[in-house]
Each structure stands twice: as C-alpha cells, then as structure tokens.
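Please produce the structure of this protein holding UFG.
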Amino acid sequence: MSGRVLLTGGAGYIGSHTCVELVEAGFEVVILDNFSNARRDVIDRLEVLTGAPVICHEADVLDRDALDRVFAAHDFDAVVHFAGKKAVGESVAQPLDYFHTNCTGFSNLLQAMDRAGVRRVVFSSTATVYGKPEVLPYPEDHPLRPESPYAANKLVCENLLRQVKAADDRWSYGILRYFNPAGAHPSALIGEDPNDIPNNLMPYIAKVATGELPCLRVFGDDYDTPDGTGVRDYIHVVDLARGHVQSLKLLIGQDQSHIVNLSTGQGFSVLDMLRAYERACGKELPYEVVGRRAGDLAAFWGDPSRARDLLGFETTRDLDDMCATSWAWVSRRKNS
Ligand code: UFG
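Below is the modeled complex.
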C-alpha cells in the first residue's frame, strides 16, 4: 500500500521505529518534531536505515501556524500522532503542562487536519487508560478509569476523536493502546534515548548494564504476583511500530475506525526482565528491593485478540530479543 503520512513526534522512540516500518511497507513519511525529547541525529540515522532522504519539519504541535504550513506543503493521506509528554510521575507534578501539550496540542492538530481536509488519524494511546484491572487480560471494552493526569489526557484525546467522528463521518481513526514498549531496532541505529535518568524499567536496566547507573531499584517485592514484583506486558518496539502500519492500512484501505490494544498477551515480572537483560549483556546486574512506587499497579497485560482479528497484528519478538536489541543499541550509543 502507498500513501503519504505525517508523523508528529516521529523522531522519538516509537515514532522513529514506526518511520522505518512505514517506509519499508511503501509509505512516504514526513516527520514533525520539536526535538524536546529526541536528538537531531535521529534523522540522519533514519536516512541511513531507509536509504532515502527523510523530510523533517522542526515544529511544535502547539504552534498552529506551523501546523498549517506543514499541511500546506504536503498532500497527506493520514497522520500518526505520537508527539506528547509521557512521564506518568511528572504528569502528577505538572498537570497543566501535560494537559496543554497533550490535549491542546492534539486539538490543534485535529483542527489543522480538518482545515487541510486530512481526516484519518492514528493516535498513540496507552494501557493506563484502563486503570485498576477488573479482568485480565484487559479487553478494549474494559472500563476506563485513568489514575494519572497523563492517562487522563490520553482518554480526553480518545473521547475527542470519538466526538469528532460522531459530528463528521468523513473522519476515521485508529486508537492504539500501547502496553510497555521495549527493545530497539536490530540495526542498533535507533532506540530509546532518554535525556535524563529514566523512569521506566527497561531504559533504567540498560543504564545499569552500561555502568551509567549503579543499581536497579526494584519497586516492591510484596505484590500478589509469582515472584512478588510488578508484572507488565512488554512489547518489542519494532512489533509496536508494525501495529501502526496495520492500523494505517485499515484506515486508508477501508476507512474503518478502530480501538485496539498493542500487546503480547503475556506478563513478565521486574525480575524476569532483569534476568533476561543479564542473559543479553552476559553479566550479573546489581539490584536492591525498595518500597513500592506510588500509583503502581501490581500486574496487568493486554488481550491481543482484537488487534489480531481486525489488523492481522501478531507480535513476533520475545523478551530475549527485546533485551538483546536494547543492549546492542545502548552499547553502541555509549561508544559513539
Ligand atoms: N520498576 C522498577 N524499577 C524502576 C522502574 C520500574 O521496579 O526503576 C517497575 C515498576 O514498579 C513496574 C514495572 O517496573 O512494576 C514497569 O514500570 P515502568 O515504569 O517501566 O512502566 P509502567 O507500567 O509504570 O508504565 C509504562 C509507561 C506508561 C505506559 C504504560 C503502559 O510509563 O507511559 O507503561 O503499560 F502507559
């Protein structure tokens, strides 16, 4: 399938991997990014990986004129919206900033799309919209009870999409609820590259493995889980990126709106992840158990069946693959 797609936040972790998968699938890609949480050399790396020039507009989704200029410069078939703030803890401390970037930014984008007559959008949502599990794995029709400002922002955007479509049936959308992304591209040219001390487990373990951080702090080993540590559904970022290709195919090919989990359907604990990373890097990694992190859930994982039935989406990469590609990427990054 072909088509020209705008990726907001396309220089970021998930955006950059999606760019590669889209180009491989035959799409033309244009990136819009403000580089607040991505490095500019990602674009050069994407050019090496795709073997073609990558058009990138340095702009912010809060800048309405800049959005209009980008839509005037290209004829898009669809937009994939990644741009936004994503640290759950930070969102608790900065709810206004989070609302502004994540909700006002998205509403600006939808307005610019409408003015330009582009009415297909894939939206990066999150498993945290579900909140405390009533059943596991989470099905897409699980009650939505977000517990952080970040998760609440995502739900506001999901609802806005539903309302926009109800008002004007020319719109179609794909809402993709991500579980926990991990790993890097097998080329080791792109991967997760947090500016500060990471909040998330995988990039934190990676920095312990490279020696940039002394020791993993395991947030609680007294949960009601097999080894007492938190359980999540980790999904390889390349699989996650492929989910966007499938979602776009359904939107562009059939104008069929959808809400799907991008998950593996399997949960692994913090200690499972640590052990897998030790296998990848070939050394023991130090850790200490500390208290639970405020707001953490014990365990959750997603039901992948709707993504399989609707998008033909299945994950193909396992935990060892996530850790091996992450280790290759961070080792290379540290030495470059
Ligand atoms: N954990 C540690 N030590 C750390 C970091 C995390 O023990 O240094 C534990 C957590 O307590 C949890 C597990 O590792 O049990 C995973 O934590 P993450 O911070 O990596 O991920 P979360 O599940 O809290 O949230 C992440 C993203 C959200 C996203 C969600 C989707 O931060 O943006 O996954 O499932 F929405």
